[in-house]
Design brief:
This protein has helices spanning 13-24, 31-41, 44-54, 61-72, 89-96, 114-122, 162-185, 198-210, and strands at residues 2-7, 27-30, 80-83, 104-111, 124-127, 133-135, 154-155, 189-193. By secondary structure, the chain is of the alpha/beta class.
């Protein structure tokens, strides 16, 4: 069975999914991670995705779904935490086609104020060498612009500029928020306040999951 963890860019889905996987026994499945894995592996579906990305185009829903289907596998698992999917109603409906083996039992929305999202993302800095992530105010490096782990240069991702962040949030509003309505109609939607420290949000998520019948 699947628990969908959704929320806007910067809501902290990835961080919380990692924590929940360690504590609750979920197998985390991230479509972004799976996509990159298949591209590295040069799998047949990975080669298709790589060709699309090489043209500067977005990977289609069909390709993403096939990657997800392969990651989920043909057999039911006790608990899967799905991070980063579905991102539109079409994907949500396609995911629902797997319900005989992998039913969605809850869609948990990490809800964060848009102004906070802009601050979180525009302040993020990533090491060009090892990929470690810092934040100029929340988790700054010891030396400004220098990675604590490898002394590499910290950079702002192009899509983390304030202008790009606002565009990404606008896309989320138009495409992904209808997914929340889809799950509300099915009685699967749960809202969790994503404001606060990581451990505070984690506590709220744990409380939400404790109320589910996952066995």
């Amino acid at each position: 069975m699947i628990v969908v963890l959704t929320g806007a860019p910067g809501a902290g889905k990835g961080t919380q999914a990692d924590l929940l996987s360690a504590l609750k026994g979920f197998r985390k499945v991230s479509t972004g991670d799976a996509l990159r894995k298949h591209v590295r592996m040069k799998s047949p579906i990975g080669l298709q995705a790589e060709a699309v990305m090489a043209r500067g185009e977005l990977v289609s829903d069909d390709i993403l779904f096939e990657i997800l289907r392969q990651e989920l596998g043909p057999k039911a698992e006790e608990m899967i935490l799905l991070d980063g999917y579905p991102r539109n109603v079409s994907q949500a409906k396609t995911l629902d086609s797997l319900k005989d083996v992998h039913p969605v039992v809850a869609a948990i929305h990490l809800d964060v104020d848009p102004h906070e999202l802009v601050n979180r993302l525009s302040g993020r800095r990533v090491c060009a060498s090892c990929g470690a992530t810092f934040h100029v105010t929340m988790t700054p490096s010891k030396v400004a612009g220098v990675c604590d782990k490898c002394d590499g240069a910290l950079q702002q991702r192009t899509d983390d500029s304030e202008e790009c962040v606002r565009t990404r949030l606008s896309v989320y509003e138009s495409l992904t928020k209808p997914v929340l309505e889809f799950y509300k109609e099915k009685g699967l939607y749960q809202r969790v306040d994503g404001m606060g420290r990581t451990e505070e949000v984690f506590g709220k998520l744990k409380g939400s999951l404790d109320g589910l019948r996952l066995a």
